[in-house]
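Following up on my earlier thread - several people asked me to post the actual chain instead of describing it. Fair enough. Here it is, all 454 residues.
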Amino acid sequence: MSNIVENKNLSPELAKDVDPDLQPTKKRIMGPLSYAASFMGGCVSVGTFSMGAGLIGVLTVPQAIIAMCIGCLVIAVALAIIGEAGHIYGIPFTVQLRSSFGTTGVKIPGILRGLPAIVWFGFQSWVGAGAINSCCKILFGFDNLPVVYALFTLLQVALAIKGFEGIKWMENISCVFIIAILIYMLYVVNTQFSTEIGDVFSGIKGTWGMPFWAATTSFLGIYSTMIINASDYSRNATDDIKPVKATSIYTIAILPVTLFMGLIGLLVTAATGNSDPVAVFSTTMDSKFLTIVTLLFIAFAQVTTNVLNNIVPPAYVLMESFKMKWTHATILVGILSACVMPWKLVTADSAAGLNFFTQFYSAFLGPIFAVMAVDFFILRKKKLNINDMYDKKGTFKGINWAAIIAILIGSVCSLFIMELSWYISLIPSGVAYYFLMKVMPSSKPFCKGTIFEK
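Reply from S.P.:
Thanks for posting it. Predicted structure:
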C-alpha cells in the first residue's frame, strides 16, 4: 500500500496555480453514515419516476423491480471502481481524467459528463418548482410557476456555492424522512388506484428479453453520469471507507430510493396516464396537510439530487476547462439549465423520450468508464504521481488520442444496440484503450507510470 500512496502530496510550486477546490482534498468530512445519507438524498430523482413510467406495457411489476435491482447493483460496483482513485489521492474527476485523456483531452469526457447533468438539473428544477408553486396556490392563492422556478434555481445554486460542507448537512438532514415519505407515497398510489393498476397490469405478460435488459440500462443510465465522476464524492469520504464498504454504502443508499421512486412512477402513470408527480399528488391526497408535505418533499428531493449530482460535476468541468472560479461556475450551470427549456421535458409525452435520452448518453459514458478503469487499475496498478497529474506542462499535457479513439469505438459499438448501450460499450473501449496505449507512438508520454513504460 505504501507504494500506491507515496506520491500523494502536491508540490507548493504547482499548488499556487491550482484552484483550492481542485487540489487534493486534505480534510475528509464524510464518515460512513454521512456518506450513505448523501447518496440517499442525492438519488431521490424525479428522473427515476419518469424511467418507471416508461416501463408501462413492457414489464410486469416483479420484472420492473428486478430490473431496478440489477441496475442499482451495477451502479454501486461501478461507483466503487471509479471512486477509488479519488478516495486514495483526494483528486476530483477532472484531474483523474488527465492520466488517460491528457490535460487538454479532459474537455471531451468533461463535456459528455456535464451536458446530461445540466439537462437533468433543469428538468428536476422545473418539477420541484411546480411542487412549490402548487403549495403556494393551495396556501396563499399565489400561482406563478416561472417566478418560482427562477427563485428555486437560485436557491440550489446558492446551496452549491457553499461546497461539500453545506451539501453534507443538507443531505444528512434530508435522509431522515426521505424513505418514510416515499413509503407513504407508494401506499397512497396503491390504495387510491388499486383497481386501475390491476386493470392495466392484468394483460401484461412481460418479458425477460431485450426490453428487460433495456430497463436495467435505463435505471443504470440515470446514474451513469454520477458514476464517472465518483471521485468528486469519494475524495470527501473518510479513510475507513474502502471499496467493499463503499459498494455496500452505495447499494444501501441507492437501491431503496430507486425502487420506491421507480415503482411510484410505474404505478401512478399506469393508473392515471399522467407522468407528472406534482399533478398527480396535488389532486389525489385526501388531506391538505399531507398534500403539502408530499409536494414539499418532491421539491426538496430535487434540491438534494441537483446540488450533489447535477451542479457539482459540470461546475468542476467549467473550472477545469475555462479556469473559472467555483462561484462563477455554479452560477453558469444554473443559467445553462434554464436554456434547455425544462418545461418541454415534463410533458406526458416525454417519458419515452427521456428513456431514449438516457440510453443515448450512456453510450458515451460507458466508454469513458472503461478507459478510466483500465488506465487506473490495469495500466497503472493504482499508482499515481500527484505532481504529474497537476503539471499541465508535464507528462500528461495535450490530448491522449488512444483514449479518444477508444471511447469512439465503444460508442459506435453501443449505438448498434442502444437498449444496452452502457454494457455493450465497456469491452470494446477497454480493449481498444489497452492496445492503443501499447502501440500508438503519440501515446508514449502517457505511458509513464504504466506497465508499458520503457
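The CA atoms of residues 4 and 383 lie 5 Å apart. That should answer part of your original question.
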